[in-house]
Amino acid sequence: MELIDSYLALVGVGQTGWGPLLLTAAAMTIGVSVCGFLAGTVIGSVITIMQLSPHMAVRWLADCYTTILRGVPDLLIIYLFYFGGSSLLGSVGGLLGYHGFIGMPAFLTGTLALGVVSAAYQAEVFRGAFKSVARGEIEAASAVGMRPWPKFRRIIAPLVLRYAIPGLGNTWQLVLKESALISVTGLVELLRQSQIAAGSTRRPFEFYLTAVVLYLVITWVSSILFRKMEARTTQGIRRAL
User: Fold this and answer.
1) For residue range 11-59, what is the model confidence (pLDDT) as tens digits?
2) Which parts pass through the membrane (predicted)?
3) Distance (Å, rounded) from C-alpha 196 to C-alpha 1?
4) Pick from 42, 59, 40, 39: nearest CA to 50
5) Which CA distances in Å does 92 have to 76, 88, 97, 103, 195?
6) CA dihedral over 200, 217, 6, 25, signed as positive or negative
7) How far is CA 76 from the centre of its chain?
8) Phi, psi of 234 (to 5 degrees)
9) pLDDT (tens digit per residue) in 102-112
10) Which end of the chain is less packed: N or C, by CB atoms within 10 Å?
11) Would you say the C-alpha torsion 173, 41, 75, 111 has a positive or negative sign?
């Protein structure tokens, strides 16, 4: 009991507890992950359209993007965005008369890095989902004279989303884990806050264990949400026994 009381006091909300800081850091993890995932959805949708293009050069560019981004370590992408963006900001500052280091905002770096990396995976998910859609459903929309945008909004997008949600759920889990790498830019997310607390109290096991629990809670809630979305998009669909 004494050990449990000591742990609860350490990670609780009391005067000496790190609980509020850990929860704030967990919220930061969720925030940067959501922003990165949404950015990846937008970029991945564009890459998917390129992959389905009738022009070979456009398809080749899309394939190069997915191959490179899935093959390069994610940490390297983060460094490229951080130092590349900082160099760009420094050049702009030099033109305005400021001579010094201007760091790329850590949250923006995380969003961009997670976005471009997850886009490579989401593009493959969307492409596979599009190819799973029955051609007859799209042809029927064209046969009744639907224009491209209404056909995409009312027919293609909902059907693609139905098949894509399970793969997007896996991609979200990947983004959530990759968010821990953003700590190298100085962003105080869950892993970084755990490191700070462990260094300050010299009790690393308790804080890293707490981080594990918080990550698992976020993952568990996310899985429930994706299952609910999948169930909603498949209402009225007869499943094979």
Assistant:
1) 887 777 898 999 999 999 999 999 999 999 999 999 999 999 999 999 9
2) 20-48, 60-82, 102-121, 155-175, 207-226
3) 26
4) 59
5) 24, 6, 9, 12, 34
6) positive
7) 16
8) -110, 15
9) 778 899 999 99
10) C
11) negative
